[in-house]
């Protein structure tokens, strides 16, 4: 906690690691991912110095599903910065790893993972998504002169929301405005990038 190397979930017990620094694609093949992450950069919650080369930093992210929970839909990296012209806060979401045989569209949007939820029980199956996901990703829009932050978001496949369990348990029909399906998530602490003065 003191080092800010933390992440939170909306309920599931997913495991998430997130690092920024200098990594190659082979890093994802290693089983000592934490050692690779620490030796090549800073963990979530860390401060990233400007790279000497001026090239964008690499982000190493890995997630493992809750052993008793749902598979993973995708991992996203969210970048935030202040626009130099408008002085407005900006944010961009990048899909960096995903389960299933999906391909992003021309505009970069990833199709939904699907839905196996059966609200009559309620339950779901892990026929979609992936039990673990990971990637080494480099910001294609990196500006070495621009202060920014990056954090990872892990999204599970759809599962029944607590309202679905209550509806079955108490034999109650929920109104049309009651959400019955959810996708639990995990959010990491950000990595802060500060350019050289």
Condensed summary:
The chain is mainly beta and 197 residues long. 8% of the residues lie in helices and 36% in strands. The chain has helices at 33-40, 162-169, and strands at residues 7-9, 15-21, 41-43, 47-48, 58-64, 72-82, 89-98, 132-138, 148-156, 159-160, 181-182, 185-188, 191-193.
Structural description of this entry:
The protein is 8% helix and 36% strand. It has 197 residues and is mainly beta. Strands 1, 4, 6, 7, 9, 12 and 13 form a 7-stranded mixed beta sheet that branches. A 4-stranded antiparallel beta sheet has the order 3-2-5-8, covered by helices on one side. Strands 10-11 form a two-stranded antiparallel ribbon. The mean pLDDT is 93. It is built from 2 helices and 13 strands, in the order E-E-H-E-E-E-E-E-E-E-E-H-E-E-E. It has helices at residues 33-40, 162-169, and strands spanning 7-9, 15-21, 41-43, 47-48, 58-64, 72-82, 89-98, 132-138, 148-156, 159-160, 181-182, 185-188, 191-193. The chain is elongated, with a radius of gyration of 19 Å. The longest helix has 8 residues, at 33-40.
